[in-house]
Amino acid sequence: MKQKLDFFKDKLSDLSRRNRSIRLMKLYDKYTVDIYELITAEASPTPNLLEALLQGKTKQMHIVARDSQIEAQQILSQKLTTLYRNLKAIEEETGIYDFSFGYPFLTGAMQDGTFFRGPVFLFPFRLEKTARYWVLERSDEEPIVNRTLLLALKKLNQFAIDDSMFDETTPVAIQSITDAQRWFQQYEYHFPIASETLQKCKNYTLKSVPELEKGHIFLDNLAVLGLFPQGSSAIQKDYDLLKLKSDQSQNLGMISQLLFDLETNEAYDALTPPVKLETQNEIPEVEQLFLLPTDGSQEQILQLVRSEEGLVVHGPPGTGKSQVIVNLITDALNQDKRILVVCQKRAALDVVYQRLDSLGLGSITSLIHDEKNDRTKLYQKLKTGLEATWREEEVSLLEYQRVSEKVANYEARLTAIAEALYLKMTKKVPNMSTSLFMSLKYNRIILN
């Protein structure tokens, strides 16, 4: 099971030359900042900044004064401002805060001559600001190996990377580039060290990339703060959680059905055929609660959800997918169900919440973007909901039943007319006069 989950997780990895985790050609202010610059500009009031970042003893580190009068420090503060704004924008859109301190770097040329340069270990941090300083806050998450870089070396360079390295977390003893070299040596990979002292991360263009011998790889004493993506999807961490549950022999439920053929226990590598939009039983109108308008195809989907364990709905922008989601939620609430809505992008979740709130369902809906920061709001909403007095409005309920009955009658009339128009009285297609007669007959019976 673990190997199969790794198979799907690796498919999410971006192994292109554009990925900074594999090929950091140039330091852009919106993505990265060089630790070397922070140290040489004497910008950080934290003594021995590199050691402090590696040792993990200090929770918060002041790195640059925001009101400094020194030109080099002012430039660094401007860079951090650009980086901070980009991090916030990405977090607001996707809910992901993917910011790390990368050290040291593995640099070299692949077998085809392609230059690469990426961090070996990633130490998660948050970039924050106070009235006077830019601050690095150490994340509660554990340091990790740059899985994307190792995977690229394995797949694109035919490099014999030991699979056990992918699951390694950074040992506490990694406090220098020599420790990183020893870490590789325990897996029989002997990479030379380019320099024992910290170096400036040079910017390269396609023309200025250093010419290295094919297959030559070395440890580069570089330290960079930045965004080093480990996958093209936000569900990378979900796979790690599934692996943990699998190791603990926990039942993965519907996930197993979606990812694996339960009879052969083999991983699916393609989507199963589309589900036909056919419901087994007609659902009475009074038992359906759609607060937003629906067309025929949307209503078929909403009815089909009741009989299917899993369903994928796709369509171009503007076709009403958010509308279907909202109606799915309101219909499930009408069935006394609890609903969890998850989205990869934060903006999409906001749209659904705003629509529910506009329908008067805000009091029983909680929006969570951050499991820690939004926890207090969630508990307060739960408290308010539990203390509230709920009562059914008898008049509204009777009106709802009346309207539902009226809609059901209209549907029955239209269905009967459609059947009359296309009814085959014999095995042959009926002639025009017979079809017209049957149509008039059914209209007279129903409409009178």
Record keyword descriptors for this entry.
alpha+beta; 10 strands; elongated; 448 residues; eight-stranded antiparallel sheet; 14 helices; two-stranded antiparallel sheet
Description:
This protein is of the alpha+beta class. Among the domains are: about 20-230, no CATH class; about 395-445. It has 14 helices and ten strands. It has helices spanning about 1-10, 35-40, 50-55, 70-95, 145-155, 175-185, 235-245, 255-260, 295-305, 320-335, 345-360, 375-385, 395-420, 430-445; strands at about 30-35, 60-65, 100-110, 115-130, 135-140, 145, 215-220, 225, 260, 265. Strands 1, 2, 3, 4, 5, 6, 7 and 8 form an eight-stranded antiparallel beta sheet that branches. The longest helix is centred in the C-terminal third of the chain and has 29 residues, at about 395-420.
The N- to C-terminal Cα distance equals 64 Å
Summarize the amount of helix as a percent range: 25-40%
The gyration radius over C-alpha positions equals 30 Å
Overall morphology:
elongated
Q: Characterize the largest beta sheet: strand count, sense, and whether it forms a barrel.
A: 8 strands, antiparallel
**Helix/strand-derived class?**
alpha+beta
Low-confidence segments, given as residue ranges, are 267-272, 424-448
Number of strands: 10
Order of helices and strands: HEHHEHEEEEHHEEHHEEHHHHHH
Our estimate of the beta-strand percent is 5-15%
Discrete helix count: 14
Mean pLDDT: 79
